[in-house]
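Troubleshooting log. The previous structure file for this entry was overwritten by mistake, so regenerating from the original sequence record. Sequence copied from the archived sheet and checked twice against the printout by T.R.
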Amino acid sequence: LVVTEGDGVLIHGLNGSGKSTLAWIMAGLTLPTVGSCLLDGRPVSEQVGAVALSFQAARLQLIRGRVDREIAAAAGFSSRDHTRVLAALATVGLEPALASRPIDQLSGGQMRRVVLAGLLARSPRAVILDEPLAGLDAASARGLLRLLEQLRRDGLTVVVISHDFDGLEELCPRTLHLRDGQLVPAVSSASGGVA
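Regenerated output below.
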């Protein structure tokens, strides 16, 4: 599998097919048992942070008590650097007033955006989103998709790990299917097959 800069790829598979494991490998957090995962010809495991990973359960990724502290910690700068915190919030379409909000007072969609704000503030080369729409209402899902589509148009590489195709066609024009830990090309429904 080759993913190029600015690409949008959906990796689809059933529960237990290895989607989350693949995400961890692509982010450099787990070493593959077979093969290699390279970024610019070097193992991604030697470049941790160059590929950001957003977990399926955003709440598990939020460990600080407040939004500003969370974004700053994820990005590696001081939470007293309000300019950078506010810029990160703006990048993901969140209001500046949320900077001082306790994490536990955020909606699910806001939590996902706070995670993404912290990850993007690190200027990653690519972002991997594990089930980014899970648990979001329709309006929150549409808003997050619009944001991700704009980031991709701006050159960010986006890989989505999901068992669901709905609404992801614009963000991820390429789809690969993961079955028993193996990537296989997905047959498009346009050609009469089943993805």
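Residues 189-195 have pLDDT under 50 and may be disordered. Archived copy saved in two places this time.
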